Amino acid sequence: MVVGDFSHEKEVIIVGGGPGGYHAAIRAAQLGKEVAIIEKNAIGGICLNNGCISSKLFAEAAKRMRDAADLSSFGVTASSLSFDMSALQERKETIITNLTKGVKALLNKYHVEMIKGEATFLADNQIGVERGESFEKYQFEQAVIATGATYTRPDSVSMEHKRILDPSTLYKLKELPEHLIVYGSDYQAVEAASTFSALGSQVTFAYKDELPYDPAVTKELLRLMKKHKIKVIKETSLEECSPGDNDITVSFLSDSKEKTVTASHLYISCTQKPNTPSLRLDACGVNTDEYGFIPITPTTETNQPHIFAVGDVTPNSELAVESIKQGKVAGERMAGEKSEWDPYAIPQVTHAIRPIASVGLTAESARKEGFDVAVGNFSLSANGYAALTNKKEGVIKIISEKKTDVILGFQAIGEGSVEMISQAVQSLEMGARDEDITYPFYPHPSFNEAWLEAAESLKNKAVHRV
Ligand SMILES: Cc1cc2nc3c(=O)[nH]c(=O)nc-3n(C[C@H](O)[C@H](O)[C@H](O)COP(=O)(O)OP(=O)(O)OC[C@H]3O[C@@H](n4cnc5c(N)ncnc54)[C@H](O)[C@@H]3O)c2cc1C
Ligand SMILES: NC(=O)c1ccc[n+]([C@@H]2O[C@H](COP(=O)([O-])OP(=O)(O)OC[C@H]3O[C@@H](n4cnc5c(N)ncnc54)[C@H](O)[C@@H]3O)[C@@H](O)[C@H]2O)c1
């Protein structure tokens, strides 16, 4: 390997080309900075290459399968319905290729230099890039660490086997699993169970901890899973799994009783381990927490004011939603702009059938924080648009503080909830009161009217409510 003595000079170096890194790069460059971005694998990171885009494409295919099964209610007949995994995988590759081209075109437009290789810090103003045959050094004035995190399986199922899947491998499958056991209690596990069931797999969904939703939402989700013939095993822990050539047997322990399930595949949720160890952070003096994540300020600074960190490598975040926001803030701060991020109103979305969305406080968490709360509820079964589209399952909840009428939270399951949540996020950010939601006009007929009537029901003013 050739190690150069010469050190290239850049105003800003970004390490990691995922959503956090490339948003930081483009915002800094738009504001006049000379930027280089170092990426060891593929621009776009996990989100674009093997996360958000792949999983949402599969969820969309699942939605179309469920919708297609209902075509006859609309007078449409199709002779047969089948699913071709290779066609979906081909579409996935095309979408990823096109989106990657788009991101690279934007980086080029703003003259962001793309450097392929693995970065390690050499000093608090110098970084080295390992590129196989050479090792280049770069001097920087400011840097952003956006190296993300690695999805890591629990020790009990850490062995590599074609029948054990996780968030990194599930959406790369070449064939539809005959029977998929999904074990996990996060949004990714719920999406996996819902998606593969709709695509045609038999699904067993097992989880230990509570699902991350409001109790009314969880109840409706579990009812829908039952309706879709997903077998649910609650409050259980995965004890052991034995993969074989043709199947996999998994032992669960519920209430001291053992239960075994044999299936074709097991999907397991993972925890995230930050991609910090190989960065040699000691060389630049950036601190990490006990898990290795890099703590940041509301302006995305680390303990070294000229070094910023964004996205999954920082505590709290596990969503591209947050990486994108933090990336923009880092880019703007480096150029001297006033910019901040605040985790107060981060939308949490699960692309299940039906979709789930939440932001802010639940009634229970608001009461724990000492609020006297009002709860507005509206069932999609009373919404006209839900009736005509045959998507009547679901419930919309809005939480407000009784004393001030200020909106504190939103929880929903049902068609349209992913669109409604943007109104909820804005309401929270603006400190809106129920009248700010109930005063304006809403398109009719539309799912949005369920958001309106949930807000109206805070004061028993909803018309379509018995
Ligand atoms: C199945 C799945 C579904 C998901 N769905 C959603 C969703 O619907 N909505 C949502 O908001 N989020 C979703 N996520 C989460 C989302 O993918 C992540 O939150 C997001 O990718 C984090 O962005 P990031 O830029 O912080 O890190 P990453 O996307 O992980 O990017 C980090 C980049 O840094 C590079 N890198 C690491 N170390 C170095 C180094 N030393 N030198 C050079 N380069 C380096 C990596 O190669 C990588 O490209 C999903 C994730 C998965 C797995
Ligand atoms: N980007 C980040 O900052 C980030 C990301 C993840 C975790 N963390 C932090 O790391 C710490 C550890 O988090 P965590 O381990 O609770 O992850 P987690 O809460 O993110 O768990 C993710 C999923 O893995 C499942 N899971 C966890 N342990 C399991 C096991 N032994 N067997 C089967 N499934 C299992 C959970 O049920 C869940 O579905 C926490 O403090 C958390 O805040 C930070």
From TrEMBL:
Cofactor note: Binds 1 FAD per subunit.
Sorted UniProt keywords: FAD, Flavoprotein, NAD, Nucleotide-binding, Oxidoreductase
Coiled-coil ranges from the UniProt annotation: none
Active-site residues annotated for this sequence: 444
Boundaries of every FAD/NAD(P)-binding domain copy: 11-327
Highest taxon in the source lineage: Bacteria
Keyword Repeat annotated: no
Cofactor: FAD
Transmembrane helix found in the keyword field: no
Chain residues that bind FAD: 56, 312
GO biological process, one term: 2-oxoglutarate metabolic process
InterPro entries the record matches: Class-I_Pyr_Nuc-Dis_Oxidored (IPR050151), FAD/NAD-bd_sf (IPR036188), FAD/NAD-binding_dom (IPR023753), FAD/NAD-linked_Rdtase_dimer_sf (IPR016156), Pyr_nuc-diS_OxRdtase (IPR001100), Pyr_nucl-diS_OxRdtase_dimer (IPR004099)
Matching Gene3D superfamilies: 3.30.390.30, FAD/NAD(P)-binding domain
Residues at which NAD(+) binds: 184-191
Residue ranges annotated for the Pyridine nucleotide-disulphide oxidoreductase dimerisation domain, each copy included: 346-455
Disulfide bonding pattern of the chain: 47-52
MF terms in GO: dihydrolipoyl dehydrogenase (NADH) activity; flavin adenine dinucleotide binding
Family statement: Belongs to the class-I pyridine nucleotide-disulfide oxidoreductase family.
Entry protein name: Dihydrolipoamide dehydrogenase
Gene source species: Alteribacillus iranensis
